[in-house]
Amino acid sequence: MSAERDSMTQVFARPKSLTDARFTYCPGCHHGIITRIIGHTIDRLGIAERTVGIAPVGCSVFAYLWYRCDALQVAHGRASAVATGLKRANPNLIVFSYQGDGDFASIGTAESIHAANRGENITVIFVNNQIYGMTGGEMAPTTLIDQKTTTTPDGRDPRLFGYPIRFSEMLAQLEAPVYITRQALYDTRRINDATRAVEKAFRLQVEGAGYSLVELLATCPTNWRMSPVDANRHVAEVVTQVFPLGDLVDRG
Amino acid sequence: MPRGAVRIDGERCKGCGLCIAACPHDVLAFSGTLNSSGYDVVCVKRPEACVGCAFCAMTCPDIAIEVYREKTPAKEA
Amino acid sequence: MERRMLLRGNEVIAEAAIRAGCECYFAYPITPQAELLEHMARQMPRLGRTFVQAESEVAAISMVYGAAAAGVRVMTSSSSPGISLKQEGISYLAGSRLPAVIVNVVRGGPGLGNIAPSQCDYFQATKGGGHGDYHMIVLGPSTVPEAAELTMLAFDLADRYRTPVMILADGLLGQMMEPVTLPESIDPRSLPPKDWATTGAAGRDPNIVLSFDLDPEALREMNRVLQETYRRISEREVRYEETQTEDAEIVIAAYGTIARIAKSVIRMARAEGIRLGLFRPITLWPFPYAPLRALADRAETVLTVEMSAGQMWEDVRLAVAERAATPFYGEMGGVVPTPRAILNEVMSHVR
Q1: Which chain A residues contact residue B15 at CB under 8 A?
Q2: d(CA C208, CA C334)
Q3: What's the CATH code of the domain at A164?
Q4: In chain C, which end has fewer C-beta atoms inside a 10 angstrom radius, N or C?
């Protein structure tokens, strides 16, 4: 094998701006793909030395372990407000927050909306897997109708608990955001699209353009009770019907 | 088609199978061997079929795969 | 600006913060500290510094967290119900060892209460309020000039010990106007750099700001560092003032606005032959237990007077124990006791 590799060039490697730590995520969880994409983006833009990541509460609470960058672990839901304080205090930093659907769209609703509305020059990565992973699989604001979770054991009933929130569409109503997009990771083509979106969002911050949000439809094989491959198919066939992919705002 | 090769870090692999599903050339398979975390790690079943497209590595959530590719030979005039 | 000016308490705290080199201020409007917010809204942009009216007190304390992590001097202000909203954020600041200044212009409570002055947040400030084993340094100014001085001190203490510091004022102090000579300005760029701050990992290992460790032994160690910090603060930073206690038969224990009223009561009492003194804690945390205990060996009675149902009273009793009588006189709901009412109470304990 190595003799063959001698005549080859390496075309895919671990991002330099990621540490060697092994991810604590479940098998097949898309958090790892997203983290790699962010790492490759930081590499390509050459911004590791001034990037500060903000880790939320949730499965990605350990996000501060993955990057060779300064990082903060902050209170549940507050990442957009912390990012505001950090970026206003030191506008030279490239600040990104990384949040799940509970952090961004439930407890953090106000902070998420108002950082976007103020047009804070930050990059927000919103991981939407329609469930609360870390705490054992409860309903999220993004949970689908009829989806079974530990707090909707008979399936989400909209008469009791409302409908899945399309947060990107809501934020797209605001004047200030320069880039809002929803992407997915269930096959190579989507991973490529997501990669371009994440890189665009970071580049816009580097250029001082304003607020960008990348919503990423992700899987939670463990709490969806699916294999990783089936979970990918679920996103492709079912979730994208509720959360359409594409750019909602592109003023960059 | 250029030839490719992948190297899988067995200790990072969690046996999720996404790489096997992503590979267009049926290069990868579960090995049946468990790593120290108890996962059935993926191995290269058909190395001769690998073209170095990196679809496997792109989808691997644990960045367990490195990908290599032969340089494309110059076309004959 | 070295001349004496007639200034309102809220504005003085704001201006003192600016002079202390506060670079970021985040807050939500609430009575009775609106003037503090408004002063910052006018002045901070003029100085090229950051002012943001946050969407809530919850957001504001998180913005404070971010700016503190960036290594700059940062402040927020609010009043009682808003301070309740900040408790999670304060616990995070303490646990993450981030310096910050938090101003509470206390009003009547609990719940919505009213906008009159009160001292009913003493427990919240000194005994926690937020979750976990932590403390904030709590400073209790009693005059407008002292509010300026203690605001400057708050930023120094916050940076020195890497801890949040609270200025516990009240609605009366916030609103009243007194002649003040404002302190000299500090250039924030002259402050020593913070090597732990998230300034971008250029040429060094990454700095991580967090209050989290799943491993109990590691978290125990983090807690030990905090407790050791609090021990050092308790040894070095206790501040208090005694007024005419040398011969006192009865001593009022009071802080803030009540302490200044008590100084009038001393004059009135002594005119009637009562040897009254005042023990005024300036740091409510760390509380001056030892000096109060020493005083209680000489005086027969330590009368705690507060605008509350009796909160600092518990710390007074802890300090004094059986050495002296420890009665209490309080007013709740934003009612401010008159000097005459306090004097009547004093007299009831000596006659």
Answers
A1: 27
A2: 43
A3: 3.40.50.970
A4: C
Residue pair C320/C292 in contact (Cβ under 8 Å)? The answer is yes
Q: How many residues does chain A have?
A: 252
Least CB–CB distance from A4: residue in B5, B14, B16: B5
Please measure the distance between the N-terminal and C-terminal CA atoms of chain C and give it in whole angstroms: 51
Strand partners, C281: C240
Q: Quick one: fold of C4-195+208-236?
A: Rossmann fold (3.40.50)
**B and A touch per CB criterion (3+ pairs under 8 A):** yes
pLDDT in tens, A53-83: 999 999 999 999 999 999 999 999 999 999 9
Q: Round to whole Å and give the CA distance between B29 and B62.
A: 17
pLDDT digits (tens, 9 = 90+) for A101-159: 999 999 999 999 999 999 999 999 999 999 999 999 999 999 999 999 999 999 999 99
Neighbours of chain C (3+ CB pairs under 8 A): A
Task: Classify residue A16: in a domain, yes or no.
Answer: no
Q: Which ranges constitute the DSSP H helices of chain A?
A: 2-6, 31-45, 79-89, 101-105, 109-118, 158-161, 167-171, 188-206, 221-224, 228-234, 240-242
- DSSP states of C28-55 as a string? ---TT-HHHHHHHHHHHHHTT-EEEE-S
Q: Does residue A13 lie in a domain region?
A: no
Residue showing tokens 């579960």: B30
Q: Which helix (H) or strand (E) element contains residue A148?
A: none
In chain A, the N- to C-terminal Cα span, in Å, equals: 45
Residue A9 located in a structural domain:
no
Q: In the numeric block, which tokens belong to residue C233?
A: 């603060």
Q: Touch between chain B and chain C (3+ CB pairs, < 8 Å)?
A: no
CATH number for region C241-350 = 3.40.50.920
Q: For residue C350, what are the CA distances in angstroms to A73, C101, C303, C324?
A: 57, 41, 11, 13
Spell out the domains of chain B, with CATH numbers in brackets.
Answer: 4-69 (3.30.70.20)
Considering only residues 153 to 172 of chain C, which have any Cβ-Cβ distance to chain A shorter than 8 Å? Answer: none
